[in-house]
């Protein structure tokens, strides 16, 4: 008998054709045992978490990332890391309350993305850079993990619940039965989703299962078209469908088993009545998200790839709806409809509304797949059908024994994470002084540094805190020497009284840290001015004294010698040219046309060759007034250049629009600047200094000349160590932001643009172009090249392309006197009394909800107020109000509901996918952690402050 049972259970048990001995002995398990099943299922589906390998050492410093546990040799390396996918991924881990990963672990995670989210198995890659963002790898990784987390949740089977006939919330996806045919602690199981609504309400599920048994029938031959004739089959069947990433797969499967030649039923696979798959290229490789979602978030991209994806999206919709119409008879008679369609676009493809709609979102037969599924293919549908219809046999430990085992087991001591010691008032003050002094030193602000030391009664030998993180440059003089700030070294020694004999932890004096001769000369000049008795200069390793006049005289002599040497070289070269002619290397003669290689171009010809293909903004370097210095930034409709105004002898920013673009930005700016109120708020609008047009190979470009800005407020926050402004700075910027927005509203305009930090002219105008390159970065041209290797000959293509320079600073380094902003980018600004606009151009994370749900209503000033509130939050806190890792409107709306509660009733009803993540009262489903308003305030506003937190009055205002 035991052998018979073993043979019986060894073969697959098809749910609709179970042996009589199995049906007769099955008994439904109790709810208490079902609880144990839920625990067992959860344990079995758990994925082992990788332990973070990063060090516990808390790295904080000007060139370190405490989150990722990395240090950097230069600020450029640090800024590059802060913009990397690795750093952004760890930020997301921190927001989710999880441990950061090491760089090696992150590379393994990215390496597992061996196929694109669009599902294409081809090695072809569409890598057009339609926008400046390169977040495709991070987006793909986070979306993949989000899907896996959703599908691992036991309540996944309930995601598609409707009020009639669906499993109740909180019930496990499997129903378990005991049987004497099974060994001890082993049970039969089946998915609840395979039962209809009426069957689930029946208390006697064993009797329901007996009624579901189907007699084997012989199936007619399936025609080549892939579907049976409409009258060929009238037995029980189900419909399965998956869509996502440009892939669509559908199948209608008979529930009746097939007999073999001996009259017994075969080992069950499936009898497919109809099947069809489609694939269209709708998603950029490894980017994730459809083209329509990308257009809604960032605006329509103009490229061959984006146009192809838009066409394919529409074609896929038509193909799917045509197929559903052809299968309408089979779908209407199906017992159940198993559908996987994530995202608004995919749901609208299936559920419309559209004329001739086949599937209805309120159909009581609808089910989700109660287990993890992969890409939409015919094989995946077949695997899912077998998983749904096969009777499970599994060992489950009862609840009582679990509790007993857990009670008797020796409790393991979990190493408690050491709490961060609370800083004393003196320590917080020392950290504040350290931050301010280091900022002054890095910017070579001699008067400001000395004034700060005097006003706060601080010694010039103040030791930076924490000591272990400033071991290389522990004091201002060490840092000034390491930064090669010669004027600052001289000021600290002569006027500040700094001690040059103090050594750092490496045993080096400040002089030994100086890397340039001018900095070392500053020590020698200070020795001359202070005298030999002031310090033990030999112990400080400072060479013999030198007066400033001697140093200047030596520098002039060396410059003259270098100039004379260059003049002599030029004279000798001119004499050689008169006798020998231009010199042509043998290597160059062997390449291309020898005659052309030997020709020497005149200066005019060289200028014309250099001008060929240059963009209009680069041609401006030959303009009589503006000399282009470097590139500052670019967007979808303009590029901004730093230029030197020869007439006013100062630096300006020139914003060059795309060719033949009609923009009202200059008119709006001039109107705002000419407002007769002359109030302070008017000074917070980008000032227009000049405007003109330039004719280029691509057409006519409009140019607006403004004062240069430091950087955008968002960029300043992103590059900060602590990702926040100091409290006083944040308050000042918030007030200015509110005043400027109110000023624009009083003028009748809705802004919706950018916010820039002002750059004082005194910080830049006194520098020569070469000094600007030395202080920031010299332009790094990259030759424009074709992918096919052919030479670039088109006059509309520039010879070189340039990466933007950055004049900004991290938010935690912005001082209160520098806390001035401008509203900028008025290209999308409009007057609602004169123009009706339905589409919001605001970034997806800052887009107001009315722009989503009331898309037929014009935008109003309230939309601007929503964006204003989010920007004030980001200014005051250590992070944005909305998560920075949201990919479509549904996720943004979900984050809004998570923070502020359910939407107004009319919007809540319009949001079709709300039941995927929320209950009807706005509570998150499953394992999703709630992040209400108070929690966000505590984490991003209060805890983000290093020295001062908001008081009760300010907290209530937020």
UniProtKB/TrEMBL annotation:
Protein name: Found in Mitochondrial Proteome
Assigned protein family: Belongs to the ANKZF1/VMS1 family.
Active site: 291
Record's comment describing the protein's domains: The VLRF1 domain mediates binding to the 60S ribosomal subunit.
Signal peptide region: none
Recorded GO MF terms: ATP binding; endonuclease activity; hydrolase activity; protein kinase activity
Organism, scientific name: Fusarium acutatum
Localisation: Cytoplasm
Binding site for ATP: 655
Pfam families given in the database record: Ank_5, bVLRF1
Entry keyword annotation includes Coiled coil: yes
Alphabetical list of PANTHER family matching this protein: ANKYRIN REPEAT AND ZINC FINGER DOMAIN-CONTAINING PROTEIN 1, TRNA ENDONUCLEASE ANKZF1
Region (Disordered): 39-58, 111-177, 281-306, 398-427, 536-613
């Amino acid at each position: 008998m035991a052998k018979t049972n073993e043979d019986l259970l060894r073969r697959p048990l098809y749910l609709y054709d179970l042996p009589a001995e199995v049906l007769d002995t099955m008994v439904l398990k109790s709810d208490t045992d079902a609880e144990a099943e839920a625990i067992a299922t959860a344990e079995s589906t758990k994925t082992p978490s990788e332990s973070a390998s990063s060090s516990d050492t808390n790295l904080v410093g000007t060139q370190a990332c405490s989150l990722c546990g990395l240090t950097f040799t230069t600020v450029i390396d640090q800024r590059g890391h802060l913009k990397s996918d690795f750093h952004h991924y760890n930020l997301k881990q921190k927001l989710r309350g999880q441990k950061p990963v090491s760089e090696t672990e992150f590379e393994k995670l990215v390496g597992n993305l061996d196929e694109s989210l669009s599902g294409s198995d081809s090695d072809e890659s569409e890598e057009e850079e339609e926008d400046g963002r390169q977040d495709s790898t991070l987006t793909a990784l986070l979306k993949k993990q989000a899907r896996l987390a959703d599908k691992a949740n036991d309540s996944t089977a309930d995601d598609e619940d409707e009020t009639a006939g669906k499993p109740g919330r909180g019930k496990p996806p499997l129903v378990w039965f005991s049987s004497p045919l099974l060994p001890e602690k082993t049970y039969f199981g089946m998915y609840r989703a395979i039962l209809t609504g009426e069957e689930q309400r029946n208390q006697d599920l064993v009797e329901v299962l007996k009624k579901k048994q189907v007699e084997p029938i012989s199936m007619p031959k399936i025609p080549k078209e892939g579907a049976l004739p409409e009258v060929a089959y009238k037995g029980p069947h189900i419909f399965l469908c998956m869509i996502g990433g440009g892939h669509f797969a559908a199948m209608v499967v008979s529930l009746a088993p097939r007999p073999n030649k001996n009259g017994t039923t075969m080992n069950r696979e499936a009898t497919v009545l109809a099947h069809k798959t489609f694939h269209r290229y709708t998603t950029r490789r490894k980017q994730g998200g459809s083209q329509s979602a990308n257009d809604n978030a960032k605006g329509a991209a103009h490229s061959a790839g984006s146009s192809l994806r838009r066409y394919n999206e529409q074609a896929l919709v038509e193909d799917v709806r045509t197929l559903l119409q052809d299968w309408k008879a089979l779908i209407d008679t199906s017992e159940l409809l198993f559908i996987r369609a994530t995202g608004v676009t995919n749901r609208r493809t299936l559920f419309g509304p559209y004329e001739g709609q086949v599937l209805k979102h309120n159909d009581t037969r609808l089910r989700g797949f109660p287990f993890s599924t992969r890409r939409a293919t015919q094989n995946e549908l077949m695997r899912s059908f077998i998983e749904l219809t096969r009777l499970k046999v599994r060992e489950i430990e009862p609840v009582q024994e679990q509790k007993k085992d857990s009670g008797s087991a020796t409790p393991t001591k979990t190493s408690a994470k050491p709490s961060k010691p609370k800083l004393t008032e003196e320590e917080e003050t020392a950290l504040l002084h350290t931050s301010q002094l280091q900022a002054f030193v890095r910017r070579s602000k001699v008067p400001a540094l000395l004034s700060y030391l005097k006003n706060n009664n601080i010694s010039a030998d103040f030791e930076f805190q924490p000591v272990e993180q400033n071991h290389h440059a522990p004091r201002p003089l060490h840092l000034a020497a390491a930064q090669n700030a010669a004027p600052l070294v001289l000021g600290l020694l002569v006027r500040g009284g700094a001690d040059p004999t103090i050594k750092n932890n490496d045993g080096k004096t400040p002089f030994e840290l100086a890397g340039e001769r001018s900095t070392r000369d500053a020590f020698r000049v200070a020795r001359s001015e202070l005298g030999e008795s002031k310090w033990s200069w030999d112990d400080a390793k400072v060479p013999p004294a030198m007066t400033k006049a001697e140093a200047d005289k030596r520098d002039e002599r060396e410059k003259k010698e270098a100039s004379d040497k260059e003049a002599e070289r030029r004279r000798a070269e001119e004499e050689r040219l008169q006798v020998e002619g231009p010199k042509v290397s043998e290597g160059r003669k062997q390449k291309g046309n020898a005659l052309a290689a030997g020709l020497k171009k005149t200066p005019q010809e060289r200028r014309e060759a250099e001008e060929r293909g240059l963009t209009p903004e680069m041609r401006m370097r030959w303009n009589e007034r503006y000399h282009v210095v470097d590139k500052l930034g670019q967007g979808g409709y303009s590029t901004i250049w730093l230029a030197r105004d020869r007439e006013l002898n100062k630096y300006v920013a020139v914003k060059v629009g795309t060719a033949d673009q009609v923009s009202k930005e200059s008119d709006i700016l001039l109107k705002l600047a000419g407002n007769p109120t002359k109030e302070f708020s008017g000074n917070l609008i980008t000032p227009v200094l000049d405007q003109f047009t330039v004719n280029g190979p691509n057409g006519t470009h409009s140019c607006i000349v403004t004062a240069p800005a430091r950087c955008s407020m968002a960029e300043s926050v992103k590059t900060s160590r602590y990702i926040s402004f100091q409290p006083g700075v944040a308050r000042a910027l918030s007030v200015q932001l509110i005043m400027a927005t109110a000023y624009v509203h009083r003028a009748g305009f809705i802004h919706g643009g950018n916010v820039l930090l002002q750059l004082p002219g005194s910080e830049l105008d006194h520098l020569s172009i070469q000094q600007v390159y030395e202080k920031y970065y010299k332009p790094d041209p990259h030759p424009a090249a074709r992918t096919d290797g052919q030479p670039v000959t088109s006059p509309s293509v520039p010879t070189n392309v340039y990466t933007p320079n950055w004049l900004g600073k991290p938010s935690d380094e912005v001082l209160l006197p520098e806390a001035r902003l401008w509203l900028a980018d008025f290209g999308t600004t409009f007057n609602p009394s004169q123009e009706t606009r339905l589409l919001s151009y605001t970034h997806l994370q800052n887009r107001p909800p009315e722009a989503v749900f009331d898309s037929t209503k014009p935008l109003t000033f309230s939309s601007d107020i929503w964006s204003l509130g989010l920007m004030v939050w980001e200014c005051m806190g250590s992070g944005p109000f909305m998560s920075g890792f949201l990919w479509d409107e549904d996720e943004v709306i979900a984050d809004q509901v998570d923070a502020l509660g359910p939407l107004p009733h009319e919007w809540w009803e319009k949001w079709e996918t709300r039941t995927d993540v929320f209950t009807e009262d706005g509570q998150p489903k499953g394992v999703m952690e709630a992040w209400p308003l108070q929690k966000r305030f505590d984490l991003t506003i209060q805890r983000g402050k290093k020295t001062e937190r908001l008081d009760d009055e300010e907290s209530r205002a937020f």
